[in-house]
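Form 7-S
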Amino acid sequence: MKIAIISLYSALYRGGNYGTLFQNYALQAYLKNIGHEPFWVRTKSLSDIRYIKSIYNLYLYALDSTIALAKGAHKTRKPSGDSARPYETFFERHVDHTARVYTRNDLLNDPPAADIYIAGSDQIWTKMVPHFFLDFVPTSSRRIAYAASARWDGLTDEWLLAAREKLARFDQVSVREAAGVDVCRRAGREDTTLVLDPVFLMEKTHYIDLVRDEGDDTPYDSPFLMAYFVSLENPKELPVAFLERFSARQGWDLQADFISNAAQHMPRNRLMNPTPTQWLNAIDKSKFVLTNSFHGMAFAILMERPFAVLLKDGKRVGKNERITNMLRFLGLEDRAIGMDLFYSGDFDALADRLMAGTDWDEVRPKLQKWRDISRDFLISATEAR
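Output:
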């Protein structure tokens, strides 16, 4: 089957977000493994554009779209400043995608041809963006939601009302968080399935081979802690002093990879700017991963590295659902750390807690069971009828 995937292309464009990139890559890799021809439909909309913070980036975004429409091809442009990410080569080489960048009108009037359309993953349903509910798809094609995600606790009654109509048109629906199952059932989809984020469809050996094929499986001179932080809303969310003290306590170097506004809060000599496969290699080679990112956590689990995840607090606790949901199913709840502990807690006690070992022999079968459910969902949803 020819399969068109609708996902958060704007998040990839804005900052080269590793999670956004790899969730689509992994979904495509698995679909190819079972005999399909998937591709990412690159989209832009008013909702996407609101995320682009600077006038300069907005100009570049429009310029790239114009070039794509004129030439039938598109070379992704890095945003300016610290948000620029070196991901373009990987994207062009490993992620099949449309040459065209589709507007809302393009999708309605001339959608890319496919047998099946998949919406997912990432937080595509946090806002009621019509194309993320595949409203443009011809009635002759199949609609599937795979690992769709949202800020489930913040959805309005209006969202639920609109979703009831839109979800009814899907052939099969799956979501990434348990809270999403409840929401979709309230919206009329009693058959909603809980599945893994796409990055877990592929196993560790696949990513290690990918790193090796790109020539990025280089060793590091010294043991190190990898800190990976995204989109800080408050500088206090970044415990720089703890990171430095904790890594020094263990005799490790500190390597930091931050995207969005996180980078401005870290000394330049600590910062990395890796390609996607260099990023995977850094996680695999690290002694410890400390992150506030769902996908930072996901790849620490895939690579079976010691890790901890900083949770949001206050009015933003709803953003923790995707993290705590994953940890709960794998029996790794102790890897989630409240932010207050990094500032008011006992350093030695917290450091000892972080260094407590993880029994990966217990985690693997739990992950594999969930992986099998997720793969079976895709096989069933995409099989010829």
